[in-house]
Amino acid sequence: MIGLMGLALATTASAETAMPFALDWKFEGPAAPYFTAIDKGYFADAGLTVEVTAGQGSLDAIPKVATGAFPVGFADINSLIKFLDQNPGAPVTAVMMVYDKPPFAIVGRKSLGVEAPKDLEGKVLGAPPPDGAWAQFPIFAAENGLDMEKITVEPVGFPTREPMLAEGKVASVTGFSFSSFLNLVRLGVPEDDISTILMADNGVDLYGNAIIVNTEFAAEHPEEVKAFLDAVAKGWAAAIADPAGATASLLERNPAADAELEQRRLQLAIDTNVVTDWTTANGFGGIDADRFANSLEQIKLTYEFQNAPDAAAYFDSGFLPEGGFALK
User: 20 is in which domain, residue-wise?
Assistant: First the structure.
């Protein structure tokens, strides 16, 4: 069935190949590079037709790509690792790291007593069950010696997460740093009252979201996958060079968005998660094998693998150019 999907998506060699792309979240600032790649013709120049579909969380795209509903998507690699452990042989893997430094964070309010990891004890933490940051919270708790018995976890929906924090119904929430922080600002919470505890700065050595691909589609269309990743990298490079222009591309798809807010959200993602010391020195898109091995060890702290972890099953660098992509 998935093989038929590949045949349906790809037409003749002389025609364009349809590669619908399943995003992790709404059309917000960090999604702008993909629309930039469309508007600047990077996908079209490569013979690809790409339509971007919004998602409902960092885990959302994984089953969509694994079942063949989409050939490519954007998802949390740590959730992908667990998915593949629970579904051995599922035709999905990561092929391009985007968030070299993950945006997993605890975002709280200083006025409610949350500024450091230990401050979470004795307070209420709002966490959407499908949230990528919440999925990594047990590792964060273990690395920082937190007593989970002393933290009251309140399951919340994505639409109510930041409003509940703004209203003081919870003292902190799990989320992506650039999303939850700016959502609180938009709700009128003073910036100097917001604390952002980035997990990557507090002992969590994980990677973040990556481009994932249906491996059966990739086996049939390797050059198209390579071209897709090249166009994505060009989209990010263009967004880094001209964030305002990239935000304009985003607003074409989400006219109700606040341009200033979304450009700021995009810039936060660029500065914190995409352009890092590692990607500057080693190129965008790849991973460090030693760090990835360590991240698997961290996952073991709170997750019992059903099968021996196999790094090669979770990330395939074969579609990337030698040395990755240059972003500047």
Answer: 2-101+206-319
